[in-house]
Amino acid sequence: RGAYTVFLDGDDFVDSPSFGKMLDMLGKQACEMMAFDFHMVSEDGAPLMSRRQIPDLPYPQAGEALLRHFLGSSCSIWNVWRYVYSTEFLRKNQLTFRESRTCEDIEFTVRAFLAAGTVFFWHHPYYCYRAWRKASLFNSPDEKHIRDFLFIVKECKKTLDLFPSTLSDRSRKLWHRPVKTKLLLWCLFQE
User: What is the C-alpha to C-alpha distance for residues 160 and 115, in angstroms, rounded to an integer?
Assistant: First the structure.
């Protein structure tokens, strides 16, 4: 219903003051998609570390250099909870999650990156991810999780193989071969 959409895992939480600051910034900087760094916390919520994949900029910025830096990082670019999406952008591009599959974050994120005309980046972490939980699917994958992961990666490869012909000229210039290769490698080697 709102202008922006965020996704939260049920066992994680947001830092309210940081979340408020992020919302204030969105009032000044309209965007389709914005990436943020995040905090890693223990199962009881104690701080462990903050991910620093985005330069500590005073305000959100976009550009090919930031995109390349972000996609070149080796950790957690696929988590949908680290992005804020324009609700209109999600509707316009029919971005939804594949049902009855695990690893759906990967496919959703690939499709969102390919659909976004511009992705903004801001270090300002507001999301608190409970890392290394014993009950997490990510930490104890079963056969279904592995099969779903392979299925999702195959679907992402199909999407990436098709995407140059579906993008505007402006987007096509940004997503040239090195970025496509990096994104494909990232999908293939996540686990």
Answer: 11
Sign of CA dihedral 15, 21, 24, 26: negative
Alpha carbons 57 and 37: distance in angstroms, whole number: 12
DSSP codes joined into one string, the chain: --SEEE---TT-EE-HHHHHHHHHHHHHS--SEEEEEEEEE-TT--EEEE---S---SS-EE-HHHHHHHHHSSS-SS-GGGEEEEHHHHHHTT--PPTT-S-HHHHHHHHHHHH-S-EEEEEEEEEEEETT-TT-TTTS--HHHHHHHHHHHHHHHHHHHHGGGGS-HHHHHHT-HHHHHHHHHHHHT--
Kindly give the pairing relationship between strand 83-86 and strand 33-41: antiparallel
C-beta of residue 78 within 8 angstroms of C-beta of residue 105: yes
pLDDT tens, 8-64?
A: 988 899 999 999 999 998 888 889 999 999 999 998 889 998 888 899 989 999 988
For the stretch 94-118, pLDDT in tens is: 999 999 998 898 889 988 988 888 8
Contacts of 32 (CB under 8 A, 6+ apart): 85, 86, 89, 115, 116, 117, 118, 119
Name the β-bridge partners of 40. 49, 129
Residues near 16 by Cβ (< 8 Å), separated by ≥ 6? none
